[in-house]
């Protein structure tokens, strides 16, 4: 049986990454291409792309790789919201799509509200101060009913220190962000909206994973306690997964 090959540009579009990222993966032998012709152009087996695309953790891992990478890499514009306007437009589209497929009263609006709060935080607290790549990673994993957000911004510790310079590490900063009202000058006020996120998650069939720096938080419905600990890896900015629980 003939193996179907597709061009590198088509593979990049399907996977949600740039052509340069595919070349880097190929060079590192983490996702290999097929070289054909006298000039050795890169092609990809459609079966390989399909397998990677259908992996339930593909986009989550891609977002984590993006925020863990020292210099980042170019994302496909379909999952990269460079500006707040793009994010808001895609958030409204997602709300419409979820509203047509989920029978759970009110949960769609609440999930969108939490997503909007976390996503808008990224723009609010990095305005004019993005360390390298501006904008956020935004993707909905339909199979797992999970919304994935990530940014390569300053992170919670750096932005909170403008108002709370005594904070020592990301674990302390994340705890303050989800539990205390922080006063300070804009855009240094961080965390006030995250207490709204906490209340919504604890009262509804939703769960949240949130990481900033080396601090990781997990919380879910019927549990207002915050589980915050040091993560095994350190990221730039923030990473969040909001999940609509399947058993509801």
Automatic annotation (TrEMBL):
Gene3D superfamilies attached to this UniProt entry: 1.10.1660.10
Superkingdom of the source species: Bacteria
One Pfam family linked to the record: MerR
GO biological process: regulation of DNA-templated transcription
Domain HTH merR-type: 5-50
MF term (GO), any: DNA binding
Record's protein name: HTH merR-type domain-containing protein
InterPro entries attached to this UniProt entry: DNA-bd_dom_put_sf, MerR-type_HTH_dom
